[in-house]
Amino acid sequence: MKNFDKKIHEALKKASRKISMNSDEAKKIMKKCAVLGGMSATVVFIPVANAAITSAGTSLGLTAFLSATTIALGTSSVLMVMPNAVIKKVTVEKELRRLESEVIVVVDNSDEISEVYASSENEKKWYKGSLEDRNIFTISVDENGGYKLIVVCKDGREIYDTFSVNNIDNIGPRIANYFVEEGYISFSFDASGADINMNSLYAINEAGNIYKPLTIDSNIGYAQFEYYQENLEIHIEDNLGNQAIYKVTPKEEY
User: Which pairs from 91-97 meet CB under 8 Å and 24+ separation?
Assistant: First the structure.
C-alpha cells in the first residue's frame, strides 16, 4: 500500500508543476489517479479542512491519498473521490406472493449509481429498481426463475450479479380426485403453493343455483356436496386469492 501511495504522490507532484488546480487538464489527471486507485472517476475539489472531516468519516483509507494531493499541488484544495459502487447483498423475500416478489439490493456508495435493474434469463422482461433508502434499492419482479442484476454506475461501468425467485404463486387449487356416490359428490383438492381456502368453495349448476358443501375437512382438502346427476361448475380459492374453476360432469375424471 505504501508503494502505491508513493506512486500516486509522485504522479500528482509531477502534474502540479505543469497545471493549475482548477484546469480541465488537472481534473483529467486526477481522474486517472482515481481510476488507478480502484476508485470512481468522480472528481471534486474541496477545502482541506472539509476533506479531513470527510475522509475521517469513512473507512476507505483516503487520508494518505488526500495528503499526497495537497502536498503535490501546493494548494488549499484537495481531490475528493468516492469508492467504486459495490453490490454487498441481494435478498429475495421467502414469503409466498401472488403477483410480485420484492428483491432488496444493498450496495456501497449509491451516490455513484445511476440506475439498478434486473432482467429475466431470456431477457424478455426488464424490471427497474428504485432507491428506498441510502444504499438500498428494491426491485419487484412478477415471475419465478433466474434473473441477472445490473447496477449501472455514473461513470459508465456496470456491475453484475444474479438471483433466483421461487416464491410467486399465481395458480389456484386443483381437483385431485372426485367421485359420485348415493346422491353425493365428493372432492379432494390439492395445491402446490399457498394453502387452500376451503371456506371459499361453492358449486353452481346449469340453472345458476349455488350450492355450498355439506361437509368440509380443511386438513385433508376434502368436501362433499349433494348431487343430482347434473353438470356443475366448482369454484375454489387459495389463501392468496388465486381462484380455480372446474366444470364437472358425472362421467368426467381428474
Answer: 92/163, 92/164, 92/165, 92/167, 93/167, 94/167, 95/167, 96/167, 96/168, 96/169, 96/193, 96/194, 96/240, 97/167, 97/168, 97/169, 97/240
Q: Is 64 helix (H, G, I), strand (E, B) or coil?
A: helix
Torsion of CA 171, 169, 194, 197, to 10 degrees: -40
- Measured distance CA(44)–CA(28) in Å, rounded: 12
For 157-202, the three-class secondary structure string (H helix, E strand, C coil) is: CEEEEEEEECCECCCCCEEEEEEEECCEEEEEEECCCCCEEEEEEE
Q: Is the pTM of this model over 0.85?
A: no
Sign for the pseudo-dihedral over CA of 207, 209, 254, 185: negative
What structural domains and CATH numbers belong to the chain? 2-80 (no CATH), 86-165 (2.60.40.760), 174-248 (2.60.40.10)
Judge residue 239's burial from the number of C-beta atoms within 10 Å of its C-beta, 0-12 exposed, 13-18 middle, 19 or more buried: middle
pLDDT band at residue 50 under the 50/70/90 scheme: very low
- Please state, in angstroms and as integers, the Cα–Cα distance from residue 54 to each residue in 9, 14, 70, 79, following that order: 20, 26, 15, 12
**Per-residue confidence at 37, pLDDT binned at 50, 70, 90?**
low
* Three cell numbers written together for 157: 461501468
One-letter identity of residue 28: K
